Amino acid sequence: MSAPTTVYNDNSVGYGSRVEVFSSTGTYVLESIMLTYPTKVTERSNQLGGANGWVAVAGQPTGTAVAQIATYTGTPGQPGQTVIMPKLGETFSDTFSGTNTEKWAVTHIGAPFEMNGYYKVNLNLTQSLFT
Q1: Structural domain includes residue 4
Q2: Among 18, 28, 38, 57, which residue's beta carbon has the most beta carbons within 10 A?
Q3: Are residues 47 and 79 in contact, defined by beta-carbon separation less than 8 angstroms?
Q4: 7 falls within a domain
Q5: Count of domains in the chain?
Q6: Which domain holds residue 95?
Q7: How does pLDDT run across 43-102, given as a tens digit for each residue?
Q8: Residues with Cβ < 8 Å from 73, sequence gap 6 or more?
Q9: Is pTM beyond 0.90 here?
């Protein structure tokens, strides 16, 4: 079965974002991806404590995303119900800024919630600086 195509989107409804292959649980559509690439600032002061210079270096990139949970069997909240969700420490790789592939790890998982007939889960992400 091929993926459905969009006939029309007035851009007021979020429509997926990226399809990512996670390292152990499979493929997810991530939406509302928010990545930050912060810096760390070190300040130098003079003999009186006044500003005398500073330097900024790259900090630890982090982010958030909402994952669409596609596989639910049984009735949610009932015995025998199964869901395949991302796991803590799981990774995926993609190019978000520039041309370099970035590896991101799941560092926090929220509880799944239903919206419009399908399930979602909030994720916190941390970039792996060394692969």
Answers
A1: no
A2: 28
A3: no
A4: no
A5: 1
A6: 18-128
A7: 999 999 999 999 999 999 999 999 988 656 666 566 666 678 899 999 999 998 778 899
A8: 80, 81, 82
A9: no
Specify the length of the chain in residues: 131
Gap between the Cα atoms of 1 and 98, Å rounded: 33
Residue 6 within any structural domain of the chain: no
CATH of the domain at 119: 2.40.30
Q: Which residue did the predictor score with more confidence, 114 or 6? A: 114
Domain assignment present for residue 27? The answer is: yes
- Per-residue 3-state assignment (H helix, E strand, C coil) for the chain: CCCCCCCCCCCCCCCCCEEEEECCCEEEEEEEEEEECCEEEEEEECCCCCEEEEEEEECCCEEEEEEEECCEECCCCCCCCEECCCCCCCEEEECCCCCCCEEEEEEEECCCEEECCEEEEEEEEEEECCC
